[in-house]
Write a structure and sequence with these properties.
single chain, 385 residues, alpha/beta, Aspartate Aminotransferase, domain 2, Aspartate Aminotransferase, domain 1, 2 domains, seven-stranded mixed sheet, 9 helices, 14 strands, 35% helix, globular
Amino acid sequence: MKPQTRPATPHFSSGPCAKRPNWSLAALEGAFLGRSHRAAAGKAKLNEVLDRSRRLLGIPADYRIGIVPASDTGAVEMALWSLLGARGVDLLAWESFGEGWVTDVAKQLKLADARIVKSGYGELPDLGQVDTDRDVVFTWNGTTSGVRVPNGDWIKDDRQGLTICDATSAAFAMDLPWSKLDVVTWSWQKVLGGEAAHGMLVLSPRAVARLESYVPAWPLPKIFRMTSKGKLNEGIFKGETVNTPSMLCVEDAIDGLVWAEKVGGLQGLIRRSEDNLATLAAWVAETPWIDFLAKDPASRSCTSVCLSFTDESFTGLAPEAQMGFVKKFCALLEKEGVAFDIASYRDAPPGLRIWAGATIERSDIAALIPWLEWAYGEQRQAQAA
């Protein structure tokens, strides 16, 4: 039987993510449009994003925060191309986005002293192998594997290298240890459900010192340049963006930050995400045909929850047939209008990926679960026919 209750918001995509509850276009009415973003009022809007982000996340006063082009990807690339090469680097990868940074460093920058520390989907690599006297590049939360770093204890306080952390699906949902991190990036379209194309870049004083004392051996495109005549371009971190920002997106980012403050700030956001994960975990614990891709509860993501079908009728299928099963499973839910975009990432093992970040209501997660069971029953019947 089809369930009677439907999620009020069926948007469970892992990026772009659901808008905050009760969002409407009216939230953008105050956008600074038709004027230069360099005007005083435009810069004030950009600085409001920076200031609210600093307060909400507890970013130290001596860390710089900038709005940069090309989403989280652009922010990470700016860091990699501008900072790496001064010393050896350890590259951590346990899912597709970490693999992407490995490719950039090893095959594009072609650094000779680059060590890769890897593991498969669903697991963390051995963090004890990481040498933080070298530079380190890693994702805090593996969006395509549902595996997150549980803490920063493996990072030395007196490290000699820089820690470069892609935190796009962790910022605003997980408590980041800022003193352990030298570069942190995220995008607006993840945990707060903002619009796409803009990235956030945070630099520690140690990262700034590297920028001002080291010149990479390769040429830097204009949008990657953060220094001028050997000094940091402070304007980037005071609302003077590298290229023209969308002031509609800026207004939407402000709206998301204001909402976050109203629901209890960072701890309120974390609590909402963790409650969503707990709801799914309780269901998984009593359901024999589904399990987390991340086996260790300590490293399970509370934003991008990745699930695997475990019954023999699925695991016994060839990989192409497994992907077909998932595609049909998700198509049933999309046809009913109860869940969109919950298939696993294309490079990940076939399964489900359910966004459970702070903009998702726990009641919608609870309403989704009976539909997952219904779709599974429909697929099993179709297989048996």
